[in-house]
C-alpha cells in the first residue's frame, strides 16, 4: 500500500486509528462471534497495579496469563513502555490488549511526526480512552480490555495515573490504582500501606507486596517463581523517563517479603 492522500475535508489528521479506517483497515473491526461464552478459552492477563510517589509513578504487573482454569503463559509482560515518559499496564483479554498497546505506541509516534511535538500526558490518556471505547463491540463478546495508564507529566512535573472502564471512560486517580482479578487484594494492601511522602524504593516495595498478597489470594495472579526466575514486571517513570527494575533487585525484595511473612 502506497502513501495515502486525503482532501481537506477528509484529512484524518494525527489520529492513526482514523487513518487506518479511512484506508479500509479498521483496527477494532469484529468478524464473527468470539469469547469464552461461545466455547473459546481466551488467555487473560490478570493483576496490574500503579502507585504515585514523591517523584513519579511505579507500575507493576504479574506474569501469569490464564485460560479458564489453566495457566496458559507464565512469562507475559503486562507493563509496556508507551513512550519515554509513559506506560500502559494491561488486564483482560490478552490478544486484543497487546494489539491495542502496539497501536497506542504507533499512535504516539505518529502524532509526534505529524504535529512536530509530543502529545501531552493527558492527551495520551484521551487517545487510549478512544481505543478502549472502539474495542467495545469486542468487549460485548467477552474480549474485555481494561488498561492502566501512567506517566510523568513534564508540564506539571509530577506522576499521574489513569484507569478506564470498558466503555472508554477514563478516570484519573490521585494515589494508586489496581485492575484485574487480584485487584481487590492488591488494592487493599496499597490503601493500607500508602504514604504521601514515599520515596522510590518504598513505592517499589509497596507494589511488590501488593502483587504478593494478590497472588496469595487469587489463583489467576502469578507470584514470584524463584525456581524459574520469574518475577513481576516493575517499572518506574519519573523525570528521567521509563526505567524497568531488574530481576536481581526484585529477587532481593521478594526474599525480604518472604522472610517477613514467615515470622
TrEMBL record:
InterPro entries registered for this protein in UniProt: Ntn_hydrolases_N (IPR029055), Proteasome_sua/b (IPR001353), Proteasome_suB-type (IPR023333), PSB_actinobac (IPR022483)
Keyword match Protease: yes
A Pfam family hit: Proteasome
One Gene Ontology molecular-function label: threonine-type endopeptidase activity
GO cellular component term, pick one: cytoplasm
Keywords: Cytoplasm, Hydrolase, Protease
Biological processes, Gene Ontology terms: proteasomal protein catabolic process
Protein name: Unannotated protein
Source organism of this protein record: freshwater metagenome
Amino acid at each position: 500500500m502506497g502513501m495515502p492522500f486525503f482532501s481537506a475535508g477528509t484529512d484524518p489528521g494525527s489520529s492513526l486509528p482514523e487513518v487506518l479506517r479511512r484506508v479500509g483497515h479498521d483496527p477494532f473491526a469484529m468478524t464473527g462471534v468470539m469469547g469464552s461464552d461461545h466455547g473459546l478459552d481466551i488467555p487473560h492477563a490478570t493483576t496490574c497495579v500503579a502507585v504515585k510517589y514523591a517523584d513519579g509513578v511505579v507500575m507493576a504487573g504479574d506474569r501469569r496469563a490464564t485460560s479458564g482454569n489453566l495457566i496458559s503463559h507464565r512469562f507475559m509482560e503486562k507493563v509496556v513502555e508507551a513512550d519515554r515518559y509513559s506506560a500502559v499496564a494491561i488486564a483482560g483479554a490478552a490478544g486484543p490488549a497487546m494489539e491495542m498497546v502496539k497501536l497506542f505506541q504507533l499512535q504516539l509516534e505518529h502524532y509526534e511526526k505529524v504535529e512536530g511535538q509530543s502529545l501531552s500526558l493527558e492527551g495520551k490518556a484521551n487517545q487510549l480512552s478512544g481505543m478502549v471505547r472502539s474495542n467495545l463491540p469486542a468487549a460485548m463478546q467477552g474480549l474485555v480490555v481494561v488498561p492502566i495508564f501512567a506517566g510523568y507529566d513534564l508540564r506539571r512535573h509530577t506522576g499521574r495515573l489513569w484507569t478506564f472502564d470498558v466503555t472508554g471512560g477514563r478516570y484519573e486517580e490521585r494515589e494508586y490504582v489496581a485492575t484485574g482479578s487480584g485487584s481487590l487484594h492488591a488494592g487493599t494492601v496499597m490503601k493500607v500501606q500508602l504514604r504521601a511522602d514515599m520515596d522510590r524504593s518504598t513505592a517499589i516495595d509497596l507494589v511488590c507486596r501488593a502483587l504478593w498478597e494478590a497472588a496469595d489470594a487469587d489463583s489467576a495472579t502469578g507470584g514470584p517463581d524463584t525456581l524459574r526466575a520469574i518475577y513481576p514486571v516493575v517499572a518506574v517513570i519519573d523525570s528521567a523517563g521509563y526505567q524497568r527494575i531488574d530481576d536481581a533487585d526484585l529477587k532481593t525484595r521478594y526474599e525480604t517479603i518472604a522472610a517477613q511473612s514467615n515470622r
